[in-house]
């Protein structure tokens, strides 16, 4: 019984732990899906509409069941109605696979680099290429700024210019929003309820917008976060009907104050589009765009005047943010018109209103069933990390009052510290630089009080230094929590230039200041040489002796020919093997079997590479048996090193001399 009881406890703990962990699978329609206990993100894996995505509610709001299983972005059974446009030098390309449906059918398309796949961070990435421009779509879970829960999809596009010239690149993300079965609910933006075509510039953007069907009993509460330290604020945000946005790949039929009736049809169908205008991306550079969409957090107290209040759960005080919005929604659920409705806010000493704000907001008369909304801009005095509570009250002349309490935590900004660990001077060992490649390590630490989003670390190298094969110039860190530290290494090759070489490491993040460090590396001068290297061990008569024929720092080597002369009275040549210079992976390069002339004491070695290149390597390995003690010399005769055109390359030669200690002579 005791063992069974323990098993039950273990199973219960596993169930509890699994419920909070995101998991990935292929759903019954063949979509790739990641899911947690709040929402799921679904990505189309088909050839058609490949990479397009949708968002559904799983468990949603923990205290409600009405939102369970409802869509936030339309995508059943396979996502296709939402799509993203990349504008490159004025041409419009739709991200992902081609479509024969209405959404994006008039766009140009690129080439798939990587089909949708699960990342190590339990997100879904899809990669497409448009000429020399690579675009990575990343979808993952993040915490909502109003609920504080991971009930939000982060939508990220990283655009990388792999060309040798700059390109002007812009981005449009179109989302086919849907609140469960309600496709006509108003978008609630600040103090406005938007039900017709509307455009906001970057200066007019709210931190977030929300949408719900009814305040007293909301089935689904959606939220888009478009401004702040978690996201990249768009240049423009449009709310319009889906049909117009589906047909227009970049520009579209925009009609201010026209309702969301789907273009060409007679059905309400709302959607939105975020625009980032074209900006130049330099060669090797990149640009990242982030926006968040998911569930919204509203603290609701039902009543004749139902009152809902929303604000960020946490506010990070940084260069972008010195205030935050408090939004109050008031719905009149009484059967009569509420007269002279007033909302007021009560703040703790640590919070104050913006200078142009007033504590009381008048809504006037509110008809039965209608909803009004007001917004206050609140300024924190400092980031203490403490949870602060405020109250919003609503009154009317002819109905009951109502009140809501909500809390907010004010924290300090992130701050990234960059340090570099690398040699100041390279050493020469056995004629070559050692090590080469060498390592440069950047250490990034978030010494601030909040998360740094999308940090990137890049290295800038001068002529003479190159990234080792397989290395990437830019390293992407995703995010860095407060006090978190990470090391970013690069393997660097030195390629033919000596002296004091400068290089730089640059650090960028969407919500921290940029930082760069300049460092210098001293590279000693190297000389092209052909030389012989013997065993380090003591050799006596009767021992076997191995000698390496090596080249170091030879430029543009293609063909190698040499005759080696040795003392036939002291050494007996046994065997000559191919050196690693004439091995390329599993491929053996052209190599003539060495000729050993025991009478003359001459060994002939000859080989060719596939193409000329700079090399430091072993040409051949020679094996001898020692016959007699005394001084021994091995000389190079008829040494010829040429490039692919047959021209002799520069080098110097170093023969080999050493002494064999006494012992019985070998017969």
TrEMBL record:
BP term (GO), one: polysaccharide catabolic process
CDD domains documented for this protein: Type_II_cohesin (cd08547)
Name the UniProt record assigns to this protein: Cohesin domain-containing protein
Signal peptide: 1-24
GO molecular function: carbohydrate binding
Chain ranges of the Cohesin domain: 536-646
Organism: Selenihalanaerobacter shriftii
Highest taxon listed in the record's lineage: Bacteria
Gene3D superfamilies in UniProt: 2.60.40.680
Keywords: Signal
